[in-house]
Write a structure and sequence with these properties.
Elements lengths: L1 H6 L7 H10 L2 H16 L3 H22 L2 H16 L4 H16 L6 H31 L2 E3 L9 H13 L6 E3 L3 H10 L3 H12 L11 H17 L5 H5 L8 H32 L11 H13 L3 H5 L4 H16 L1 E5 L13 E7 L5 E7 L25
Helix pairs in contact: 4-7, 5-6, 7-11, 9-10, 9-14, 13-14
């Protein structure tokens, strides 16, 4: 209703009655999407994935209905074109540019027939993206390598303790679990003396969604590529990369490939040199192997110790989580004049016991900036990798 009211406004389009009103619209739904995103990225379960599968196409339909609203886009375009003649304030101009480009890139100027096909493709893609992510998450949760006590060679006491706790939580008391996540895989591949287990752990991780079972992503990937190409073709683009890069730093596929090809020869040469050092060290040890991907981290660490007298374990004391958190706060303070104050546990809601919260204020004025949530640990149901998101945005609409 809010979007329809903006689109059907009979007053001449302005930043205030079009762009600003769009930014205000849908606040309640945005909050619902925030909670949906928290569950999706941090607390996923098989039951929630069923909900995602049901909602993904509906969310796509909702989004497409907005970007294909002809009256709404006409108002956005009018404000954009006026701003090209008479530029707005920098922050307002930025918002106008972003909204106009988002609508343009999502088929707002297509004819009715192409819009209909665009919407169909977007709906199908939303389900495919959801299936892809859920399949990867399933394989991260489902492939766990269990070790016995005689298979712990090279591993640190802290890592062994953590692996024992995970195994116990999974009903494997007395064993040690290597989960199918980077935070578990990396240290195991770096320090474990068990080559066959290194191979198993490496294979599990790099085969997520590629195991030839009901959670295999190969067919999904092929469908995604075909549909992406068809969808951007409706708007006159030759390929997905051409469409995707137009508002990114590279601007076009040629620039991106040019950079890759410029870097590639040096990268290949460096890898060849590093692998040669690893192979030489393995040969010196009398190990009859050819260096494989699951050996890289293990022998790279050995080369560092032998060639540069650098032990990664000695560096770890400076890279403890508390110290790194302090360093992040220090940098933010220097750059933005922010101050971080820990929020007492239980004072604000969190979605998992691992999450810690800080109140952020301006050093000089004491003005509240917001809350900063830190959720640093991998766990089942949580999206892997390092990433950040926004749960509640700040606006200056009301002063």
């Amino acid at each position: 209703a809010e979007i329809d009211a903006i689109a059907n406004n009979e007053d001449a389009p302005t930043f205030e009655n079009t762009i600003e009103e769009m930014e205000r619209a849908g606040a309640a739904l945005d909050r619902a999407f925030t909670y949906y995103g928290i569950y999706s990225a941090n607390m996923s379960t098989p039951e929630f994935r069923d909900v995602q599968s049901e909602l993904a196409p509906k969310i796509s339909e909702y989004s497409t209905k907005i970007t294909q609203n002809a009256k709404l886009f006409a108002r956005i375009k009018a404000v954009y074109e006026q701003s090209q003649r008479e530029p707005l304030e920098a922050d307002q101009q930025r918002v106008v540019n972003l909204i106009y480009k988002r609508f343009e890139m999502n088929g707002a100027e297509l004819d009715a027939e192409k819009k209909a096909r665009y919407a169909e493709i977007s709906k199908e893609l939303s389900s495919l993206y959801n299936d892809f992510s859920n399949n990867v998450l399933h394989d991260e949760e489902g492939y766990i390598t269990y070790l016995t006590e005689d298979q712990l060679g090279g591993l640190s006491e802290d890592f062994i303790k953590s692996a024992a706790e995970i195994a116990s939580a999974n009903g494997k008391e007395g064993m040690y679990a290597i989960t199918n996540t980077r935070s578990s895989m990396d240290p195991f591949l770096t320090y474990s003396t068990e080559r066959e287990l290194r191979k198993q752990v490496w294979t599990n991780y790099y085969s997520r969604g590629d195991n030839g079972d009901e959670y295999d992503n190969n067919e999904i990937i092929a469908k995604i590529l075909r549909l992406r190409k068809e969808r951007v073709g409706l708007m006159g683009y030759d390929n997905y990369a051409e469409w995707r890069l137009q508002n990114r730093m590279a601007k076009n596929p040629e620039n991106a490939m040019g950079l890759m090809e410029a870097v590639w020869p040096a990268a290949i040469a460096l890898v060849a040199e590093e692998v040669a050092d690893m192979q030489a060290l393995a040969d010196e040890e009398g190990v009859s192997i050819t260096i494989e991907p699951w050996d890289y981290r293990y022998y790279a660490e050995k080369v560092r110790k032998a060639k540069y007298d650098l032990n990664s374990d000695e560096v770890k004391q400076y890279l403890q989580l508390d110290k790194l958190t302090e360093a992040m706060h220090y940098v933010a303070g220097e750059l933005f004049d922010f101050e971080f104050t820990p929020v007492e546990e239980g004072k604000v809601p969190v979605f998992h016991p691992d999450v810690k919260v800080w109140e952020v204020t301006h050093k000089k004025t004491g003005e509240n900036v917001g809350l900063w949530y830190l959720d640093p640990y991998a766990r089942p149901g949580k999206r892997s990798g390092a990433w950040a998101t926004t749960y509640r945005s700040h606006t200056t609409f009301d002063g």
